[in-house]
Specification:
Layout lengths: L15 H8 L22 H17 L3 H13 L7 H7 L3 H11 L11 H19 L4 H5 L14 H4 L6 H18 L4 H8 L3 H11 L2 H16 L1 H7 L3 H16 L4 H14 L3 H10 L10 H6 L1 H13 L3 H8 L2
Helix pairs in contact: 2-3, 3-6, 4-6, 5-6, 6-9, 9-12, 11-12, 11-14, 12-13, 12-15, 14-15, 15-18
The structure holds tryptophan.
Pfam family, one: Rcd1
GO cellular component, one term: CCR4-NOT complex
Protein name: CCR4-NOT transcription complex subunit 9
Length: 332
Amino acid sequence: MNAPTGQASPFLSMGPSSVMIQQQQPMNYMMGDAPAQVQQQVELSPMEQQLNQERLHLLVSDLLISEKREAALAELSKDREKFAQLAPTLWNATGVMTALLQEIVSVYDLLQPPTLSASASNRVCNALALFQSVSSHNDTRSLFLNAYNCLLAHIPLFLYPFLNTIAKTRAFEYLRLTSLGVIGALVKSDDVEVIRFLLSTEIIPLCLRIMETGTELSKTVATFIVQKILIFQIGLTYICATPERFYAVSTVLGNMVNDKPSARLLKHIVRCYLRLSDHPRAKDALRQCLPDSLRDKTFDKHFQSDQAMKRWLLQLLMNVGDYASYHEFMKN
Ligand code: TRP
């Protein structure tokens, strides 16, 4: 199904350090990471590799000991890029995925009323970072999505209570962003099974809410997820299946445009609109409801510095048949 080949993920260029700077705390989600399969391992001697393996196994077994779990979570999450075998090791070690799920479930009580502390948030985000590693590794992704074991089936659903929170404190924002990161890593695989699974859940309304009320960074990741879903034919068909669904999405996109988005966010918004314009009925609707600020010079500065985004916008204007605005843009 329409697997989008050759589409560089916009997040590949956004190194984890850029996220860290914005958050000013040791962040664990890895939207900026290269997919696991292209992640370069640092060259290690056989001796170092052996030691590294032993340390990995020791830390993973510490996850099963309650007094050692918090420190092991922090260490593994911090050094996750050093361990090529992290994801399969976590997945295959008996009881470890269950222990990680336990970490997640144990903070549900703190979500409503919102009483999650910064340190509890940090701890669960470290667990989420390990989930993300499992969800982005080629050997474990589909197992993660569709575990044979009933208890572990559909693990991403365990993150939805986090995405559903609205508290504005840093602890909650960090939790939402890290959970979005796990979903973002899943959709980055361009695997239609991921999309099929997500569409069977309520991911779109959750993303839309975050696109409406989140911080700039959360909005960006949520919009990225919607964009990735839309790229697949089943995603486009799902979102355009009813007028209510289409207008829910286009209204939120329009509101974000009116909120003066960053260039990075705007890029994802334009991609979403452009993809919607591939659908015949959505194209007709967009002719009416595409925001004026995308038809005039409002974002000229962003378009000048990002020619790819400008081309997408021009294509969008063509698709919806707004030739007047198209020619205005072509003048300069
Ligand atoms: N269950 C809702 C539906 O089927 C999910 C939903 C809410 C939704 N808002 C949406 C789906 C916007 C797509 C777009 O409509």
